[in-house]
From TrEMBL:
Cleavable signal peptide: none
SUPFAM superfamilies in the record: GHMP Kinase, C-terminal domain (SSF55060), Ribosomal protein S5 domain 2-like (SSF54211)
Keywords: Kinase, Transferase
Gene3D superfamilies assigned: 3.30.230.10
Gene Ontology MF annotations: kinase activity
Source domain of life: Bacteria
InterPro entries: GHMP_kinase_C_sf, HddA/FKP, Ribosomal_Su5_D2-typ_SF, Ribsml_uS5_D2-typ_fold_subgr
Name the UniProt record assigns to this protein: Mevalonate kinase
Length: 308
């Protein structure tokens, strides 16, 4: 048995903001992927994955929902026969490792599933997002359902609000100097503790005001610029966003990267922002000159995501 491939995702803009109903933009990232496989002789990571699938099966069989039903007998049998999720997507890196797994389980075991080939109305997209939110909550405690949605559809997704998501056309890549890239913090980040820090901060009126008046409006402007291909304006807004995040989301930025973050803002060689919930994993970078950013960040591992 070998299932179809499901890809990683990158939330270009909208981390934390989408929890509070501002805009977000997520794109598939095909450098990393995963698929369901099975083996009679499990060891190492495959054995761990099989054990995780067993716990996930228990979670799904106890779900009380009218939104979706699964072929649980088949799932149980396949797990007993050595099924595991074979994935190159790094875990705890903010690129949707659990999202790809959720998408693959839905694809194979959901009864009456919504397929990628049908006309994806807003209702169908919201239904999928709700189902994926329920499923992925097993991994994170609370999930927007966006990562699995992105992985399942393998399309850029624009989140206008909680109840309004749509596939987005993003400008095709150019052979320019500018780039979006990933910077490897070489630390694992855990989603749940970071989201808890954010939720605690949201109890503070000043922080809430900053989210709605600065963070969300700047994020929305970045998304607008990116989708319209307004590169010059985009970098101005990304610089503002980088400053806002450094000032207000320090606990989510690994301490070893506070100075690196500041350096980007002061030199304009690159601008950094969170990739996912932060706390480790990847940090997302934007630069008008990738060669210059590479030189400036020569001590770190960078991965190219998109070219301007």
């Amino acid at each position: 048995m070998k299932g179809p491939l499901f890809y990683a995702k990158i939330l270009l803009f909208g981390e934390y903001g989408i929890i509070k109903d501002s805009k977000g933009l997520a794109i598939p990232f095909n450098a990393y992927r995963g698929a369901l496989k099975s083996s009679e002789d499990l060891s190492g990571k495959a054995l761990d994955s099989n054990g995780n699938l067993e716990k996930f099966y228990t979670y799904l069989s106890n779900l009380k929902t009218d939104l979706v039903t699964f072929n649980l007998e088949e799932l149980k049998k396949d797990i007993e026969n050595g099924m595991y999720f074979d994935s190159s997507i790094p875990q705890g890196y903010g690129v949707g490792s659990s999202g790809a797994l959720v998408a693959s389980i839905y694809d194979k075991y959901a009864s009456n599933k919504i397929t990628v080939l049908e006309n994806l109305t807003r209702d169908k997209l919201l239904n999928l997002k709700s189902v994926f939110s329920l499923m992925e909550s097993f991994f994170h405690g609370k999930s927007s359902g966006l990562d699995p949605l992105n992985s399942y559809l393998s399309l850029p997704i624009l989140i206008n609000s909680k109840d309004n998501v749509e596939p987005a056309g993003i400008p095709s890549q150019k052979e320019g100097k500018g780039a979006v890239f990933l910077l490897d913090s070489e630390q694992i980040g855990e989603t749940e503790p970071m989201v808890n820090i954010f939720m605690n901060k949201m109890k503070n009126e000043g922080f809430r005001k900053m989210i709605s008046e600065e963070f969300s409006t700047t994020t929305d402007a970045c998304i607008e610029d990116f989708l319209q291909g307004n590169v010059k304006s985009l970098f101005g807004n990304v610089k503002s966003l980088s400053k806002i995040v450094l000032k207000n989301f320090k606990p989510m930025i690994p301490s070893a990267f506070h100075k690196v973050w500041e350096k980007g803002i002061s030199t304009n060689d690159y601008y950094l922002k969170l990739c996912g919930s932060g706390g480790g994993g990847y940090i997302l970078g934007f630069t008008e000159d990738f060669a210059k950013a590479q030189k400036s960040l020569k001590d770190y591992k960078l991965e190219l995501v998109y070219r301007f």
